[in-house]
Fold this protein.
Amino acid sequence: MVRLSTPKQKMAYFLVGTWCLLLLGASAYLGLFHYAAIRVDGKNNLAELAKIYPAPQISQSGHTAYHILYSDCGCSQRTAIQLLEEFQRVPSSDAQVVVLVGTKEQEQGFRLAVPDFDKLLSAQHIKLYLENDEELFVKKFGLVGAPSLAFIDKSGALLYSGGYAPFRPTNTQKISFAELRRNILTDLGHTMQPYPIFGCVIGKRTRQASDPFRLKQISMGAGI
């Protein structure tokens, strides 16, 4: 004869089952949140970048590429490595500017993750600006995700604002600035849709809105 569970056993089974469901739900949420792309709606003030972060010199092409990176973000670190590798192979005719957003502590971690960062920037004549106040950066420019590219022409017009590729860069699937640049300049009719930003949310308020229960911050840190 099968014994029926006591009320205490039933309650224990219920609590264990509920806990397992919560864990599964949290894991699914974190996975989706981490791999979701940040859509670009064009509502930003990135054309103002040139006024606040001027290029060091007029480039051969007259254009300037602004690379907005978030120091506490693995995708930004990987993007920086791939861009510097590409510029070593094929120097760009555009002025290149990197705006690194994040605290000084996060900045130190970024430099550890990107070997010879400052040395390679200097060798490629890439200007670096450090923006330690991410909330102010978001307020000024309306950009909430990184890594992001803003491509500005010689007249100061913003030709492109968005991600670097239609995929998340990996060690085997790499971004190509030259290819994206070619697509931008051959699409002066502005029919090209910006790529989503595969990376990290910038700004504490934005992160809180995206992850109200702070599950991702607890599990993975600030990067998305």
Q: What stands out?
A: The two ends are 54 Å apart (CA to CA).
